[in-house]
Amino acid sequence: MARIHSTAATATAIIAGVSAINNGLAVTPPMGWNNWNAFGCDVSEELLLTTSDQILGLGLRDLGYDYVVLDDCWQDVNGRDKNGKLQPELSKFPNGLRSISDHLHSQGFKYGMYSSAGEMTCARFAGSLDHEVDDANSFAEWGVDMLKYDSCYHMGRVGTPSVSFNRFKTMSDALRATGSNILLNLCNWGEDLVHTWGMSISNSWRVTGDIYDSFTRPDDLCGCNQVSPGDVNCIAPGTHCSVLFIVNKVAPFADRSIPGGWSDLDMLEVGQGGMTDEEYKAHFALWAGLKSPLFLGNDLRDMPAKAFTIINNPAIIALSQDPHGRSMTRVRRDTDVAKDEWGVGETHVWAGHLQNGDQAVIMVNFGGQDADMEVSLAEIFIPFGPGGAAPHNKFDWAVHDLWAHRMPESTAESVLAAPSVAERAALLKKANWYNATEIPYAQGLRDEDPRLFGEKVGVVKAGGVLKQKVKSHAATVLRLRRIAKDGEKFKGKSIDRVAKDEL
User: Fold this and answer.
1) 3-state class of 132 per DSSP?
2) What's the pTM value of the predicted model, to 2 decimals?
3) Are 227 and 218 in contact (CB under 8 A)?
4) DSSP bridge pairs for 296
5) 433: left (phi over 0), alpha (psi -120 to 50) or beta
6) How high is the pLDDT of residue 16?
């Protein structure tokens, strides 16, 4: 036990002393909504404000979704004014951008905006390259809390880590110089090994090309499909990247995220309509477990009830917001499985340590048939020692299903159909739904709030094997909880279970 406690204490001390860019932001992965996936350039003041009303009314802000982000295409088509300042398109934003941030702030939201570290944005509006100071000052004047900073039309200033680092660092420095504490989300698609330097200047960094609404389908526009998706030197990240491609790409460096700085797997596609319910559940759980920022990308004003019951599951969100702040990593990948319609077939097991000593496990089947999957405790705990050397293998573990208490679809339909915020709030209260504004996730986990722990469905004995039947294109999401041995004491007290920092 002394060895285990020492290891955990050291890890805790390291994490406590490291906070990436060290600006106090994004201590856990940021959450919110971004318009791009559902609306592209069809943006307006009305869209942002009606969506913020919906996030608030559905209780999503109180689950942690507190950033509302305006993506590309917000600018006047004529570009900068005579003083070199960016200007919003007044037909879309008749009251200006400061009024939007003021309104969002009054609702308890944070306001995000977009630009590009290039001469143009990806939609070919004016970019911020060589205008960083002016643009940072504009963002601060508009009350911006987050900047999504893209990499289109970079004028050739790419190709080595130092060149890309310096290009993005210019904006990072300019934002800091404004005196406003603005979260910086780099969107350079994983180029120039951003996972090795992004945390020095930003709070999150994209690691692949743009996602699209597919679980496994390859697409030539996701340029690295022709090489190993684990190749960190891929030079054509592109767009139309599937969920499978993105997780394969990040697997070799999934452990680079730390509190204050997160690998960004791109925005969520849940509710867009291109995947099945099981695929969306797996997509959402993987993004939560891998500690990607969780930014909803669908039209929340017209959302299927099933999609609502995915994005509002507090037991899954608690994986994202766990104070330990470390991503799950892949401990097993098998490719000798039945192929799906796109010729893809593989299964993964991802595992990760949580603050209270629990272990998260996601078993995901990207193959074409249901699979009987299994993984030993030795593999699940391999980060603590290979070959079964991890002391965790000596204990029994209770297995909890984190989808077990998913909101009933009928309840979700009632909440979505309720005509007023008050009626929606009453329905959520009746359902005893989690509210992270009232009880932050760290507190809820510490207090063993049952809404964050799913349902116990079994036990894995010491040195044993976890077995699950996983549907095709689906995932099983589990939380393993250590069971104390008879008569065991923790810090001098008899306990039923140990799940603290001694592991």
Assistant:
1) helix
2) 0.93
3) no
4) 33
5) beta
6) 39
Q: Which helix (H) or strand (E) holds 258?
A: none
The CA angle 370-307-253, to the nearest 5 degrees, is 65
150 is catalytic: yes
Whether the CA torsion 422, 424, 427, 433 is positive or negative: it is negative
Distance CA 453, CA 450 (A): 5
DSSP 2: H
DSSP states of 205-227: EE-SS-B-S-SS---TTSGGGGS
Q: Domains in the chain and their CATH numbers?
A: 11-302 (3.20.20.70), 329-405+454-494 (2.60.40.1180)
What is the SS3 string spanning 163-184?
Answer: HHHHHHHHHHHHHHHCCCCCEE
Beta-bridged to residue 114, according to DSSP, are 148
Angstrom distance (rounded) from CA 48 to CA 104: 9
Beta strand 489-490 pairing with 67-69 = unpaired
Render pLDDT for 331-354 as a digit per residue (tens, 0 to 9): 999 999 999 999 999 999 999 999
405: which DSSP letter? Answer: T
Q: Are 276 and 305 in contact (CB under 8 A)?
A: no
Give me the pLDDT at residue 237, please: 76
Residue 244: DSSP 8-state: H
Question: Which DSSP state fits 96?
Answer: H
Closest CA to 44 of 99, 1, 3, 82: 99
Q: Which long-range contacts (CB under 8 A, 24 or more apart) does 438-442 make?
A: 438/62, 441/28, 441/64, 441/314, 441/317, 441/318, 441/321, 441/322, 441/323, 442/321, 442/323, 442/355
- How many angstroms separate the CA atoms of 376 and 287, rounded? 24
Q: How many CB atoms lie within 10 A of CB 49?
A: 17
Residue among 135, 145, 210, 340 flagged as catalytic: 210
| Average pLDDT value for residue range 374-388 | 94
**Of 62, 66, 145, 150, which one is the catalytic site residue?**
150
Name the β-bridge partners of 205. 186, 263
State the CB neighbour count (10 A cutoff) for residue 16: 9
Which residue is it, tokens 């090309």? 209
What is the tens place of the pLDDT at every residue in 384-428?
Answer: 999 889 999 999 999 999 999 999 999 999 999 999 999 999 999
Residues 6+ apart with CB under 8 A from 68: 32, 33, 48, 51, 52, 55, 104, 109, 110, 111, 112
210 assigned to active site: yes
* CA of residue 30 relative to chain centroid, distance: 7
- Residue 437 makes CB contacts below 8 A (sequence gap 6+) with 61, 62, 108
Q: In angstroms, rounded to a whole number, what is the distance separating the alpha carbons of residues 502 and 487?
A: 17
